[in-house]
Amino acid sequence: MIRVLLVDDQAVVRAGFRVILEEAGDIAVVGEAGGGREGVEQARRLRPDVICMDVRMPGGDGLEATRAVLAQLDPAPAVLVVTTFDLDEYVFGALEAGASGFVLKDTDPDELVEAVRRLAAGFGLVDHSVTRRVIAEFARRRPPVPDGAAARIALTARETEIVQLLARGFSNAEIAAELVVETSTVKSHLGRAMTKIGTRDRLQTVVWAYQHGLVGERGAGGAS
């Protein structure tokens, strides 16, 4: 059973998400919080697998809560950012804080359930259309880090190639087809690359690739 904590200042949103998620059968909403500070306290006590976090709460404390949860809990839960606007400074801040994915508040119920399942399984929402657009905007607003070249040396040529394709929006199967290798080989290389660069999931690996200048080397286009 996937354990979920809902953090949103609107009670009606929490109630709606609870109904949607618990109807899935394999998801249990173990707690709710109306603000960031309460959300961190609940996360410490309940140890959820996934937190659905509203970052546009009064004072913007959803961002602080995301940072606190990911810094203080080990293992840390996956944070699913729930936002009203798809291109929003709060979303960029959540990505930098370590969020694993995000959805819009008016998303289809099935997509919300699938997002929670994916994050619980360790996958970020790299293939989500909104995520791809926000990642591209994130890259445009955040220039590569100064020591990007040094950070990339740890990766082998094949690992670098796979991370680049991932950042361009390719799935594991599409990467395998592009490189003419087995999907299992892609998973192995990607797993080693993530361990080396210290990212928890696919979304944060994409963020890392943009920050360290990998994407521009092969073009910013991607598979749909």
What does this structure look like?
By secondary structure, the chain is of the alpha/beta class. The chain has helices spanning 11-22, 36-46, 61-72, 89-97, 109-120, 129-141, 148-152, 157-167, 172-179, 183-197, 202-211, and strands at 2-7, 27-33, 50-54, 78-83, 101-104. The chain has a five-stranded parallel beta sheet, with helices on both faces. Strand 3, helix 3 and strand 4 form a beta-alpha-beta unit. The longest helix has 15 residues, at 183-197. The chain is globular, with a radius of gyration of 17 Å. Mean pLDDT is 84; it is low at 217-224.
Summarize it:
With 224 residues, this protein is of the alpha/beta class. It has eleven helices and five strands.
Any key phrases for this structure?
globular; 11 helices; 224 residues; disordered C terminus; five-stranded parallel beta sheet
Tell me the number of strands: 5
Question: Biggest sheet, in brief?
Answer: 5 strands, parallel
Low-pLDDT residue spans: 217-224
Order of strands, main sheet, comes to: 2-1-3-4-5
Structural class: alpha/beta
Mean pLDDT: 84
Report the β-strand fraction as a percent range.
5-15%
How large is the count of helical segments? 11
List the helices and strands in order.
EHEHEHEHEHHHHHHH
Spatial gap, N to C terminus:
31 Å
Please tell me what the overall shape is. Answer: globular
Rg on CA atoms, Å:
17 Å
Helix content: 40-55%
Secondary-structure topology with pairs:
Blueprint: E1 2-7, H1 11-22, E2 27-33, H2 36-46, E3 50-54, H3 61-72, E4 78-83, H4 89-97, E5 101-104, H5 109-120, H6 129-141, H7 148-152, H8 157-167, H9 172-179, H10 183-197, H11 202-211
Parallel strand pairs: 1-2, 1-3, 3-4, 4-5
Helix pairs in contact: 2-3, 3-4, 8-10, 8-11, 9-10
